[in-house]
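Anyone? Bumping this.
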Amino acid sequence: MEPVVSAIRAVPLEHYVYLSFVLFSIGLAGALFRRNTIIILMCLELMFNSVNLLLAAFSAHHSDPSGQVFVFFIMLVAAAEVTVGLAILVMMKRNVDSVDVNQLNRLKW
Amino acid sequence: MELLILLLLPFLTATLLMVVRPTAAAKHIALGSTLLSLGLVLWLWYNWTGTAVVAVNADWFPQWGMRLVLGYDGVGLLMLLLTTAVFPFIIAAGYKQNLQHPSMVNALLLYTQTFLLGVFMAQNAFLFYICYELSLVPLFFLLLYWGGERRRAITVRFFIYTLLGGLALLFAIAYCVVQEPTHNADFSALANLALSPDTQVWLFWALFLAFAIKLPMFPFHSWQPDTYTMAPLQGTMVLGGVMLKMGLYGTLKFVFPIVPEGVVYWRDTVIVLSLVGALYAGVIAFRQRDLKRLVAYSSLGHVGVLTAGLFAWNSYGVSGSLYQAFAHAVLVIGLFYIVGAVKDRTGTSELGAMGGLKLKTPRLAALFLLVVLNAVALPLTQSFVGEWLMFNGLWQRDGWFALLAVITIVLGAIYMLYAYQRVMLGPDKWQLEMADADRSDHLYLVPLIAVSLVLGIHPAPILDLVNAPVQQMIDLFTVTH
Amino acid sequence: MVSFDMLGKWCWLVPAFPLAGALINAALRRKLGANVAGGLATLMTALSFVVSALLFFGHDPAVTPVKVVKLFDWIRVAGMDIGFAFQLDALSLTMMMIVTGIGTLIHLYSVGYMHDDKRVASFFAMLNLFTFAMLLLVMGSNYVITFIGWEGVGLCSYLLIGFWYTNPEYNYAARKAFVMNRIGDVGVVLALCLLFSLFGTLDYTSIMDQASGFGAGNPLIVGATLLLFVGAMGKSAQIPLFTWLPDAMAGPTPVSALIHAATMVTAGIFLVVRSSVLFELAPFTQDVVLYVGVGTALLAASIGLFQNDIKKVLAYSTVSQLGYMFAALGLGAYSAGMFHVTTHAFFKALLFLGAGSVIHALGGEQDIRKMGGLKGVTKITHWTFLAGTLAISGIFPFSGFFSKDSILANAFAHSPVVYALLLLGALMTAFYMFRLLFLTFWGSYRGTAHPHESPLVITLPLMVLAVLSVLGGLLNLPHLFGGHEAMKHYLATAAEGIHNESLHLSASTEWILMGLSTGLVVLTIVYAYGLFVKKTTLDGAPAQMPALKRLIAEKWRIDELYAFLFEKPYGWLSTQFARVGEDRIFVPLMNGVGNLTLRAGKVARRLQTGNASFYLFAMVAGIIVFLLITLYGG
């Protein structure tokens, strides 16, 4: 057994779940209530990572590597998503001179 | 194989026109394509042995009951014949119209033809439904971009209304397919679906609503006059000449085999509504101020009798109704062409402004009169055969129905002759020079008149086509009930 | 001589000739000159007459009473098999002789009369087409073929009444004729449907065979005959559908003579005689026919008393005489009715053509108040017109005497009241006809035109018809005068009803009836002579007349009544249906569907705030709701 896996297993599974829950909740609360787009993007990443953490933990505990493969995929997609998000952010700053998410409310009706 | 060619020919021609976009040659290409289709169907007719044909039979999404099944029986062949016979005339009507973007117009018309043919060939409920709804799409653009006054409002209204009916149909088909043990949506399978009588009573309307709107049957008719009046000439011809026959055919294909109990329950209601509608439209037509609108109402009147004849559900009624479907197509194409010809010359279709046109255009007047004779169902014209059979069919159902139906021929005489008089007869109201019917007008109208006369004197070819399948359907109906 | 059976196969030639003439004239209507077109049309009708005559004289009812010649199958659906077939029997052959014989004369006349019209070839095409349709009507071997002709003659009547189409009044008259005929046709179509459902066939021969299976007074047979009679009312201008016929005088005069006097309007009588087997089974219908006939005879005769248009007088006279014929049919005296059809065809065609000759002589004048004294100028017209007038008035030995007397005798046998009424009608007929004759030809000329006699092509038909009007009575000479009712016995081979006829009056009674009617008619003529030749009493405008006379002169205001009862309400209904029905009910109903969609959209789009935070919030809320449902929902 690899040392990383045994290291992960050293901590009981519940603790990962609690931690992930806390991280996810922080991220969700941030995404919902903050208006600064940069912070919202960071909160989204936080949520991703909480899920990644959980996936890695379960993967190690169940001896199923596919969970960790998922983590890599998610990281990849998240990275791509952040690039797009940041690009939108830059355009937004240029166009409306603000990073307040509520400024972007014209996409309706 | 022939059926696939028949389906692909207009489709590919239309696509070609869309891609290449020729201006001058577009109508020639389109006309050639429709004539080829007609030739193909005539060939099918020539080889017709009297037994139903299933030419293509392939799985598509079999788990949802969707299968590609193409074929035809006598009734289907009549409808194919009607469609392909009428389309060359519809395309040819464009020769004098000079609409913008002729390649687009012709392509749209050919797409419509494709889906109409698909409707009449489909032997699977889903395939039928898809073609049924798709046929509206090209027409939507035709009406929206080439229509007359208030085209946006009227087109959108027409579409929402017909789609509403289509939605009910889709729901009903889905319901039937779920009930079918093997989830097969072929007509042959659905016909054996013995639904409980209570179900059939409500399912009847789900199935029939789409067709009632498409026909249109009173009181679902109110989209029709506006749409016919506003649509470009060719669009009106498609709507009145072929499109509404989908309603008739659909009723025959769907409603009667699947919900016979529902038909038994509702048929007198439908007959009464149709006949009331026919009388109502006949009365309204009398005082219409616009010639095109008058013809629209006259069509509504004819269709009312047609629907009633169908629901009389005996050999005379159904054969008459199908025969009249063909006659009506020939008739409305001719009438609308004359409306167009009059409008070309006078610049209006307002009846109040007309009069005395016969002094300037005696030939056009004579042609108009000959078409009018078919419209008032004079014996030895095609319409008479159809109406005579329908009157007998309705009589066998109930004498009062026949009375209501026969009164429509009086109303028809009143408004048609009044319209003819207001346009053609009386003192001359026009100070302008205008050309009489020329060679192309004759080339257009004389074949239509000839068809109406020949089939009025010798209706056997068409009647023989439908007699056997109609008899079969009626027999099935009486065996189970 | 070719045998009847051989020739019978060629009977389709009879309608084919006029049809060919119609098609040629119609196709070449701009290229043919007046004489060529007219000559062709006349020739075609004459050929048709020749074939008819060969058939008629070759026909021996004792050998082949009925011959059916089938050309082809027409409509064949399930149990319905309607063949395109002709039936040759005494009835159809007699009618063919009348139609083609008088038709030929009137065609010939038209060559002269219509010579200067620009659309003369169209005219002859329509006239030939009419002959064709009328022949189909009388020759058909089943009701549907007869119905083709029935509608066809209606069409030709429409076309010819509105022949001078730039005049809106004429067009109106034409439409009125067509629509009223169509109202009658509703009855015919329904009768045909009913008969078909009863008998399973519409062939005359089969129906005649099967009819005996129905008892007298069978309600279905009564219904069918009543419906047939509705059609006959329309075509033969009986109350209440008679108002179109006087207006139909808008057409050229030969048309009035051929269509609206001699042939088409007698189609209703023909139809009833054809169906006599059925009418015999329906006593109720016979009564209706009798009363409608008597009523029409009196009403139309009364209107005729005060008309001043030469053609209108003759038109009302025609309506009145048709009433006589129906009265005869109602009495069961079919042979008397058919006899009157024949003699009436002779003398009424003669009178109309004579009127046409007068109108031609006066350059289009039709008001008899502006005529007078023409007998010096238009000698032939006058003498022939006199022959016609004497015939219609029923003076011995003119043809009308015999036919009318036969009807009156039957009426007397039925009921003296009916007899008295019909006699009154006959007196009115004599009065207005002699008024017409005296005011037109006698006295002194009151107009301004320069009258001249018409050419031979016009007067020749007049002379032929005059001879027929004088001698027509010989066709059915009663026993009293040494004859043996030839026509009755001939027609009895074709019509069951005639076969069953029986009239039981002693010879002395008949002599008294004849003496009475002749004496009264002569008195009436003397009275008219005093009124119109001695004094020349002319009517002024209706407004200055006493009330009752004014009412009659204004045609009992029946046109106004119909306008008030039907035309105006119909127009109103049409407008209201469009304004209220369409604009207020059905279009809004349909718009409702669209509006409902739009409204729903308007509400639903509020959710689309455009605020990303809100979307996110909604999403999370949705997820939580679903989670809660999955956990605790069950």
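Late reply, but here is one note on the structure posted above: The first strand of chain B starts at residue 53 and ends at 61.
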